[in-house]
Design brief:
Strand content: 15-25%
Structural class: alpha+beta
Mean pLDDT: 91
Distance between the termini: 46 Å
Low-confidence stretches: none
Largest sheet: 10 strands, mixed
Radius of gyration: 23 Å
Length: 525
């Protein structure tokens, strides 16, 4: 039966990390591997918020380089290269292609010059300009408009939710504890200093007071809410957040087949939009708008954003005749961007992170998926000022311990590499747990049936959406959230989860209702 990790009662901790996205997971890992007793709690599921709804890209940020933020770009490309080395199968290179129709030679030359700097920062060198005939081989579905050639470059992509889970699993190997569905009822203060928190396990409703030498608020877009609800107000140095929503479309790979990621400038406002192959589907994104509904309102795509992204596809791939019916799913996430106070366009805001402190409490917001390790080390530098006798060792080794690819003659090397990247040391027991026929891919995806069994057995699944939207990504890869495969999903997972028929059916109804609201195609106006 699936077993959730519970926090040991009566134990004091060096650090209590609040927030189970990539930022909290990164802090958990870097603290644990440096000898600190660390507990992480997440009010919903690991990666539930921004970290399962990102653009799935591990990138250096060409836009940040264009705006002059050399430091952020340098750090990001170095972390990208480190992740590519440490997690093949989870973080993979992704080529990008940008069509040039010859209308702005000055822009082309500037872009090529910027790419040379981008490569230099990463310690790599590759050609970037392609003649029309070779570019059409890279991106055969682009429109028939006159083509001067094209620009190509390389970044990387990942499964963002599995990246979070891999980081947490690595932290557990160093003695850390991580628990999902545990909410913070209040921070515990004494004399103006935070000493821990009152926690509630949402499964059992049991409440426990946990003491910690330092509490870390890594709740991202929700960081303001934790400070306010916990009492003590918000420190003067705390930044103001500007929650920005990024929305995406998911199409079947056969309907929008791409070998490379295709970048384009939106015909309406010249914002960059991309489409790229991911896990057996094609992702299209992203918007960048203010999430005015408030962070307690779960992000979902609006019809305006949907039409905006479809307009970009129609401009770039007019011959495909794409319609609403071609979109398998949508998803939207809220980015915890620091408000620069300039009241400019959302895309103009910087993506730097910011760390601020008060006695016993360190908070962090902002930043990028790619730079989670740099953010974690910056947070620990602030923590070290509140932990007498502990000094931060800031050296950076490999992000993950080396894990050999399992040796199996009955599976292709690419499948084994993928499993090793996503599951680390758990890849071998996952393969051993699979039953007959479960090492085959679920149609339309690169996911094995056996991954469902392993998630249900060993990965702290509490709700059906944990299984289908984060442990696996079937909910955004298959039509209707995977409804057509639900009978076999149930046959595999219900016994592992220990759910009776009434609970499974209630969970299925809840999941499908949530999927239609948050991940479906919004109705036309």
């Amino acid at each position: 039966m699936n077993q959730a990790t519970t926090f040991p009662p009566g134990r004091d901790w060096d650090l209590l990390v609040i927030g189970g996205g990539i930022t909290g997971a990164g802090i958990l890992l870097e603290a644990a591997r440096r000898g600190l007793k660390t507990l992480l709690v997440e009010q919903k599921d690991f990666a539930w918020g921004t970290s399962s709804r990102s653009s799935k890209l591990v990138h250096g940020g060409l836009r940040y380089l264009a705006s002059g933020n050399l430091r952020l770009t340098r750090d990001a490309v170095r972390e990208r290269e480190s992740l590519l080395r440490a997690a093949p199968g989870l973080v993979e290179p992704q080529g990008f292609a940008f069509a040039d129709h010859g209308t702005d030679v000055k822009r082309r030359l500037g872009f090529l010059a910027m790419l040379r700097v981008y490569d230099m920062l990463a310690g790599r060198r590759e050609p970037h300009w392609e003649r029309p005939e070779s570019f059409r081989m890279l991106a055969p579905n682009i429109g028939e408009a006159p083509l001067a050639g094209g620009i190509r470059y390389t970044d990387a992509k990942t499964d963002d939710a599995r990246l979070v889970l891999r980081v947490i699993d690595e932290a557990r190997a160093h003695g850390a504890v991580a628990c999902n569905y545990v909410t913070v009822q209040a921070l515990v203060r004494d004399g103006g200093k935070v000493h821990g928190a009152m926690l509630r396990d949402e499964r059992s409703q049991a409440e426990t007071a946990v003491r910690a030498r330092v509490v870390i608020n890594a709740t991202g877009a929700w960081s303001d809410l934790l400070g306010g609800a916990a009492g003590g107000g918000k420190p003067d140095r705390a930044p103001r957040l500007r929650p920005l929503r990024g929305s995406h479309l998911v199409l079947p790979a056969w309907r929008l087949p791409l070998a490379q990621a295709v970048s384009l400038l939106h015909p309406a406002d010249s914002r960059p939009v991309f489409a790229f192959p991911w896990e057996g589907v094609t992702l299209v994104g992203t918007t960048d708008v203010d999430h005015e509904e408030g962070v307690n309102t779960e992000a979902r795509i609006t019809r305006h954003e949907f039409d905006y992204l479809m307009a970009a596809l129609h401009a770039q791939f007019p011959q495909l005749g794409l319609t609403d019916q071609d979109v398998v799913a949508t998803f939207a996430g809220v980015r915890p961007v620091i408000d620069g106070g300039q009241h400019g366009a959302p895309s103009s805001e910087k993506r730097d992170h910011f760390v601020w402190s008060e006695p016993g409490l360190v908070s962090v917001a902002g930043g990028k998926l790619t730079t989670f390790r740099s953010i974690a080390l910056d947070v620990l530098r602030h923590v070290s000022q509140q932990l007498p006798g502990w000094q931060l060792r800031a050296e950076r080794g490999p992000v993950f311990a080396r894990v050999p690819v399992p040796a199996r003659h009955d599976l292709p090397p690419g499948v084994l590499r993928r499993l090793a990247g996503r599951y680390g040391a758990q890849a071998k027991p996952l393969l051993l747990a699979a039953r007959k026929g479960e090492l085959e891919c679920i149609p339309g995806t690169q996911t094995l049936w056996g991954e469902l069994r392993w998630a249900a057995r060993a990965e702290a699944v509490y709700q059906l959406d944990d299984l289908l939207l984060r442990r696996t990504r079937l909910g955004i890869q298959l039509p209707d959230g995977g409804l057509g495969q639900m009978a076999r999903i149930r046959a595999i997972c219900q016994p592992e989860l220990g759910w009776d028929d009434a609970r499974w059916e209630a969970q299925e109804r809840r999941y499908l209702a949530e999927w239609r609201k948050q991940y479906g195609v919004p109705p036309a106006a």
